[in-house]
Amino acid sequence: MHPDNFNLVWVSKEAREIASKLVAEHSILQGYGMASYLSLPGGYDNHSAVQLWVHNKIQKWPPEYLSIPELNKAFLSCFPDHLLNPASH
Q1: Which of 48, 68, 78, 88 is most buried by a 10 A CB count?
Q2: Which domain holds residue 29?
Q3: Is 43 part of a structural domain of the chain?
């Protein structure tokens, strides 16, 4: 992913790198709509919302919960099942 996709918010390099992995792993499009699921104001585009969400988790979570699998699990838990598995509904 090109770094210019993350130019709307200031976050740590670590948050930017982890967010980039989540965006790639889940094929998240650049549009809008994810911020509200991540408990963020709706004005953030999807990539910036993921980046800010990761940054917030890094700031608040104890270090032992900061693995990529734990962050990925927490990230997915923000969304209703029907959005994650549309074919099953």
Answers
A1: 48
A2: 12-61+69-79
A3: yes
Task: Note the pLDDT tens digit of each residue in 6-65.
Answer: 445 789 999 999 999 999 999 999 999 999 999 999 889 999 999 999 999 999 988 877
- As for how many domains the chain has, the answer is 1
Entry pTM = 0.82
Distance CA 77, CA 41 (A): 18
Any domain includes 23? yes
Q: Two tokens at 17?
A: 């790198």
> Is 32 contained in some domain?
yes
First to last CA, the chain: 31
**Selection from 55, 50, 24, 21 nearest residue 38 by Cα:** 50
